[in-house]
């Protein structure tokens, strides 16, 4: 039985999948897992593979907190590693373009979508 946080995350991932499809993405994979990490959604658009990290939070009045802030340098390092593993496993063409995006989902108290937006190419090769 999934935990409450997993159910909460599933709402964000389902909303993100619908958002991506609506914007012309082809969904390739969901929840690709290895012991060192997980990719929420793998999609493709315009010949580029997009590894998508979904962050979901509840709306809080008078708060400037955005879910994507939780993709810190440690999470970025894990994301790069799991994306490289995915590419190694799936063996796309050697010159395959890819990037890591983040989708931020904010829910109202009734778990309806209040806000959803995509941050493209949110994780870079270099750490700053």
| Number of strand segments | 5
Mean pLDDT: 87
- What Rg do the Cα atoms give? 15 Å
Major sheet strand order: 1-2-3-4-5
Task: Report low-confidence residues grouped into runs of 5 or more.
Answer: none
Question: Short summary of the structure?
Answer:
This protein is an alpha+beta fold and 128 residues long.
Could you explain the architecture of this structure?
It is a single chain. The chain is α+β, with helices and mostly antiparallel strands. The chain has one domain: Trna Endonuclease, Chain: A, domain 1 (3-Layer(aba) Sandwich), CATH 3.40.1350.10. The protein has two helices and five strands. It has a five-stranded mixed sheet. A hairpin with a 2-residue loop joins strand 2 and strand 3. The mean pLDDT is 87.
Annotate the secondary structure layout:
Layout: H1 4-22, E1 26-34, E2 37-45, E3 48-58, H2 73-90, E4 97-107, E5 113-123
Question: What are the defining features of this structure?
Answer:
128 residues, alpha+beta, five-stranded mixed sheet, 2 helices, globular
